[in-house]
Amino acid sequence: MRRISYIPIAIFLTIFIWSIFFGLSASHTQAAKEEAWHRLRETGECSTCNLIQGDFRGWDLRESNLSGANLEQANLSEAQLNRANLFRANLVKARLNETKLQQANLSGANLSLAELNQANLQQGKLERTNFTGASLQVADLQQGNLVNASLKGANCRQANFMWANLRGADLTDTNLEEAILSYTDLRETKIGENTKIDPKWRTLQEFVTNQTEKDFTKADFSQANIQGITKDNRDLTGVNLEQAYLFIVNLQRANLSKSNLTKAQLIYTDLTAANLNGANLTEADLSRANLTETDLSLANLTATKIPLKTLSNKWHKVWKILNQQLQQEDILSGQDFTNAYLKGVNLYLKKLQYSDFSGADLEAANLKQANLFSANLSKANLKNTNLENVYLADGDLSGANVMGANLSLANLTGVKITGTNLELANLCGAIMPDGTKHSCN
Q: Does residue 415 carry a pLDDT above 70?
């Protein structure tokens, strides 16, 4: 009798059974996906759903709950996800090009190797979000909270991080070429040698992380976000802080001479005994700064918001003159205006007798017919200043710059002129120090 082999039959049956099982499993998985997609579209609720490789291009998913959802390799390009909850969602290799994600919660989400080119993530909650290796070219992350987020190796070329919080973020090997980093908080960020970033922002990151040994004189910190740091006694000569935002910064006894603080905001910034000699404070907001014993010599206070009650009488009056806020009761005679910035001011007909303007900058100022009897203008800058018909008898012009000044009809009887070249000025009809009248030839 011929013996029958059952082995091939058993193998065949096993394969057949498994194929049925996997077929049923795949069908079940697909059905589950379709059910999840339907639920997402209808209700916006799909927390922890498996939406892997799903195609949601252009879907309106505003305010949807996708926390913990698996969206790996999903296509969400041009979808609307404003204010959506994607907390700890898996978006590895997902496509979110031109996707709207304003105010969305992506905290703790995994977006490694994802595409977010031209995506809008304004005001997004992005704490501890993983963007490792992601593409964020031209993405908008303005005012986003990226505290401790990972952007390691990400391509953020031309991305907008204005007013974003990147404190503690990992920017190692990140491409930030042409990225907008104005007012971005860069404290404690990790920036490596291979990080592609404008030298200006690299220097700022070093400054806000308190690298005390580095020289920051003449550094460009325009439109910088500088918060909660201590830089007391530091030499910051010539630093550009135009339109910068300084909040609770300790600059006690710091040297900020010749710095540019035009339109800067110095909120609760401590400038006690700081040196602001020659600084430009035009339109700066120092209304909540501490200016105790601050040196404001030759500082430009034009349109500066300043705590006037804390200023000395001298600098209060300088501010009033510069900003045309003088009152009738303001006395200008016998006052201390040494080293004051008074360029272009109008002091026509003012009573300035016995006042001290030594070292002051009065370039292009109008002092026509002013009473400057016995006033001290030694080493003052009087270039192109109008001093027509002034009464300066017994005054002091030693070492003053009078190039181009109009001193016609001025009374200079007894004036000290040591080191002053009056030939550079218009002296037509002026009474000279020796009492003679100057010709008009």
A: yes
Indicate the SS3 state at residue 227: strand
Of the candidates 287, 324, 321, 290, the residue with the CA atom closest to the CA atom of residue 306: 287
Total of domains in the chain: 1
Q: How far is Cα 279 from Cα 389, in angstroms, rounded to an integer?
A: 33
Instruction: Say if residue 45's pLDDT is above 80.
Output: yes
Closest CA to 79 of 93, 63, 98: 98
The Cα–Cα gap between 68 and 207 comes to 38
pLDDT tens per residue across span 379-405: 999 999 999 999 999 999 999 999 999
Q: Is residue 378 part of a domain?
A: yes
Q: Quote the percentage of the chain above a pLDDT of 90.
A: 85
Who's near 256: CB < 8 A, 6+ residues apart? 236, 237, 239, 271, 274, 275, 276, 279
Other C-beta atoms closer than 10 Å to the C-beta of 177 total 14
C-alpha distance from residue 91 to each of 52, 76, 194 (Å): 9, 10, 26
CA distances from 321 to 303, 365, 411 (A): 11, 11, 24
Q: Say if CB 411 and CB 395 are below 8 A apart.
A: no
Let me know if residue 440 belongs to a domain.
yes
d(CA 21, CA 195): 51
- Percent helix / strand / coil, the chain, rounded to 5: 15, 15, 70
- Per the prediction, the chain carries an average pLDDT of 92
d(CA 249, CA 288): 12
CATH assignment of the domain containing 335 = 2.160.20.80
pLDDT per position as a tens digit, 134-168: 999 999 999 999 999 999 999 999 999 999 999 99
* 333-379: pLDDT as tens digits: 999 999 999 999 999 999 999 999 999 999 999 999 999 999 999 99
CB burial string 357-386: b at 16+ within 10 A, e below: bbbbbbbbbbbbbbbbbbbbbbbbbbbbbb
Please give the residue range of the domain that contains residue 398.
Answer: 322-441
- Does 5 have pLDDT greater than 90? no
Look at the block and give the residue holding tokens 């919080």. 165
Length of the chain: 441
Specify if 171 maps to a domain: no
Q: In terms of C-beta density within 10 A (0-12 exposed, 13-18 middle, 19 or more buried), how is residue 280 classed?
A: buried
111 domain residue, yes or no: no
28 pLDDT band, cuts 50/70/90, is very low
